[in-house]
Amino acid sequence: MDELIPSGAGIVVGMPRVLLIEDDEAVRNGLSMALGGRGLTVEAVATGEEGLAMLASRTTDVVVLDLMLPGLDGFEVCRRIRAAGDLPIIMLTARNDDIDVVAGLAAGADDYVVKPARAQVIEARIRAVLRRSGQPSRPVGPGIEQHGDLGIDRAGLSVTKGGEPVGLAPTELRLLLELSQVTGRVLSRQYLLESVWEHGYFGDSRVVDACVQRLRAKIEDDSSAPVYVQTVRGFGYRFGPL
């Protein structure tokens, strides 16, 4: 099933296509109607299995995914979508619980919204992740930078490790480009939220931490002892090797 899931939204043309996976019928119908009235095309299903099948047969720009689903839960659905590509995922969680939020972000979600949430809030989050996925970075200069065995091509928006291409989701690439242009300098989580996600972004630092974890898993030899993206406890992150 995974290999059939489209790899990502890319640049969205026309009305954004949203797949809503939500088992609560009242919430599902209410959000479908409200988001449809706000200029989005919404397909809605009740289970993770239905959602994965829909992704295999339809073009989708963003997934809005409830975590607490019957059968195949939202965490597993998120992992399967993310393993197949960089399709933006916004998770819905019933409570602002650190464990649920961190687990969802670690599974690959790009953002989260705590229920109950107004349709305009969810719409704003959808449009924000679509802007980020359609514009992966701001090129800062020509040429390929070499940092140890990590090569960063800012103009070409590509990364290699040991000469082999590294597949990064748009937000992971933006984060790496932001950190690596100031090697050795500590950047706070709040700065990264505003520069990598967007100015005025109203998420929290757990989104940054989860993205750092996913980035490390792709560019570090040992993500538990990172060389490139290093944590400066109490301050933020910096790019090495120093």
CATH superfamily of the largest domain: Response regulator
Low-confidence stretches: 6-13, 135-141
- Give the strand line-up of the largest sheet: 2-1-3-4-5
Q: Quick check: average pLDDT? A: 82
Rg calc: 18 Å
Q: Please give the oligomerization state of what you see.
A: single chain
CATH architecture of the largest domain: 3-Layer(aba) Sandwich
Protein name: DNA-binding response regulator
GO molecular function: phosphorelay response regulator activity; transcription cis-regulatory region binding
InterPro entries: CheY-like_superfamily, OmpR/PhoB-type_DNA-bd, Sig_transdc_resp-reg_C-effctor, Sig_transdc_resp-reg_receiver, WalR-like, WH-like_DNA-bd_sf
GO biological process, one term: regulation of DNA-templated transcription
Q: Would you kindly provide a written description of the structure presented here, covering whatever features stand out?
A:
The protein is an alpha/beta fold and 242 residues long. It has two domains: 2-134, 3-Layer(aba) Sandwich (Rossmann fold), CATH 3.40.50; 144-239, Winged helix-like DNA-binding domain superfamily/Winged helix DNA-binding domain (Arc Repressor Mutant, subunit A), CATH 1.10.10.10. Helices cover 38% and strands 20% of the residues. The chain has eight helices and twelve strands. The chain has helices at 25-36, 48-57, 74-84, 98-106, 119-134, 170-180, 189-197, 205-219, and strands spanning 17-21, 41-45, 62-66, 89-93, 111-114, 144-147, 150-153, 158-161, 164-165, 187-188, 229-232, 236-239. The strands form three sheets. It has a five-stranded parallel sheet with strand order 2-1-3-4-5, with helices on both faces. Strands 6-7-8-9 form a four-stranded antiparallel sheet, with no helix packed on it. A hairpin with a 2-residue loop joins strand 8 and strand 9. Helix 2 packs parallel to helix 3, helix 6 packs across helix 7 and helix 6 crosses helix 8. It is elongated, with a radius of gyration of 18 Å. 36% of the residues are buried.
